[in-house]
Amino acid sequence: MGIFKRLESFATGDSAPLAAVLEDLRWNADGLLPAISQQFDSGEVLMMAWMNRAALEETLSTGRVCFWSRSRQALWRKGESSGQVQRLKELRFDCDGDTILLKVDQTGPACHTGRRDCFFNRVEGDRLVVDREPLIDPAELYRQ
Amino acid sequence: MGIFKRLESFATGDSAPLAAVLEDLRWNADGLLPAISQQFDSGEVLMMAWMNRAALEETLSTGRVCFWSRSRQALWRKGESSGQVQRLKELRFDCDGDTILLKVDQTGPACHTGRRDCFFNRVEGDRLVVDREPLIDPAELYRQ
User: How many CA atoms lie within 13 A of A96 on its CB side?
Assistant: First the structure.
């Protein structure tokens, strides 16, 4: 039985060694897991991106969130070009070990458009409405 | 230019037709998008699952969340066997049209383990700790 199946019936407070857990994560065919970033205090869902094992291990060891950029095929230290970093407060795995939840402290905007979060497009009837303002002009964000 | 690229520079309150947006979503190779369920009032991230276009359209038209089950290869009307449904309060797409955020009202536990949410495994140093109690015994949940 896999470790995530066993964790399901653990009592609250019981634990398993992280090293064994990392071996049993259900990476997709590209070796990635989706990672949801949530602002730790307000609960805002900021963005979703992807991690490979190296990104996950770097995030856990440095406390600064690192994703895997699928477009650049490289480690993506969030904020490396914009300065808008995510400090890790807590990292969780879901019940079947195929999704990561990051509780983070996001400096400024998480979104490359300069908005606080990436989910600024809301369905309203038969329209999709933009309902958030950028905090910073993206031209500013990537100049520094 | 794709519609999501154009939405980036829309002013707050501007909108695009949903029909065109649905054509421009960035489905993965299996025709799926990740969908994050968040409890609308408390902000808890409950779970992440997948939607194909049929699941998304059904969710929007019925107001009851429907995913695509990758294991069963079938539409999965959340709560169809457990009774623990998700009522849709709001549906959002992210900046590049490849992730869905569902604000929902979750009846009881979202997780098949009987816990409120699926993210009950928290990293603590070199251990993974279970830190949530089931609300309901899963044997109860799937008997009805």
Answer: 11
Q: Phi-psi category of A114—alpha, beta or left, where left has phi over 0 and alpha has psi -120 to 50?
A: left
Residue with tokens 């998304």: B56
Report the residue from B113, B118, B127 with minimal CB separation from A15.
B127
Q: Which residues of B touch A47 (CB under 8 A)?
A: 94
Q: Residue B140's CB: how many other CB atoms inside 10 A?
A: 11
Phi, psi of B37 (to 5 degrees): -100, 125
**What is the tens place of the pLDDT at every residue in B67-118?**
999 999 999 999 998 889 999 999 999 999 999 999 999 999 999 999 999 9
Is A123 within 8 Å of B51 (Cβ atoms)? no
ipTM (interface pTM): 0.96
From residue B4, how far is each of A97, A109, B28, B60 by CA, in Å?
31, 18, 16, 19
The alpha carbon of residue A144 is apart from the nearest alpha carbon of chain B, in Å, by: 21
